[in-house]
């Protein structure tokens, strides 16, 4: 089987993009993992497929992590998905709505920047002390399309991201599906920096869109910082998270604004 693909990245979170509007492709978990393998394949944090809509959107977005597991949503991937679909339509789209397992998402375009309207966050829980890798961490959590644990720290450079990240990823508190793990530092009111250990990548990534949203909302919960919150990620990009809180502790109009870059196009034979 020969596949035409694009390689894209959203703030350093990188993806293989496939056009499967004709549903001719049916890749196994192993094949997806092979394509994402950084030594034996193209290399990516995840893979996104464009499929025909079935629930009133313009398209359906399928997202798979590097280990081949399907996830409900991917914030950086959604920006890339929107740009990819726009490229498939010669750049003529101004807004595209797409179905995900987390609900309907929409993308609007401003140059090479994309604004994603996220699904409604749920399951917000603040300040639980949990034993993690021999330490006790104060952990917040929220589902922003996928589950996220958030820990605020004083120094991001010395955080044991792999040890604490894996400890939270598989923690009993987040069973059975597990969680992504984010470590955040307040730079100033309304400005944070984060590092993320991603479920399904099983490692730190250069950025995590749903993680940025989770950290921004919890920063607002803890400090009252108004919308938008800016988020500096490991890869060096700064993105913006917008939201409306109404009623208290419930969020609508949640948006993520940032880059979506095409890197190269290719064919691969499996
Ligand atoms: N690894 C995540 C999905 C991708 C999230 C991340 N890449 C983003 O940009 O939101 C999970 O399995 O929950």
UniProtKB/TrEMBL annotation:
Q: Does the keyword Isomerase apply?
A: yes
* Localization: Cytoplasm
Looking at the UniProt record, the site noted as Could be important to modulate the pK values of the two catalytic cysteine residues sits at: 148, 198
Pathway, per Swiss-Prot/TrEMBL?
A: Amino-acid biosynthesis; L-lysine biosynthesis via DAP pathway; DL-2,6-diaminopimelate from LL-2,6-diaminopimelate: step 1/1
Coiled-coil stretches noted in the UniProt entry, renumbered to this chain:
none
The Gene Ontology biological process terms listed for this entry are: lysine biosynthetic process via diaminopimelate
Q: What is its main location?
A: cytoplasm
Protein name according to UniProt: Diaminopimelate epimerase
Q: Which organism is it from?
A: Prosthecobacter fusiformis
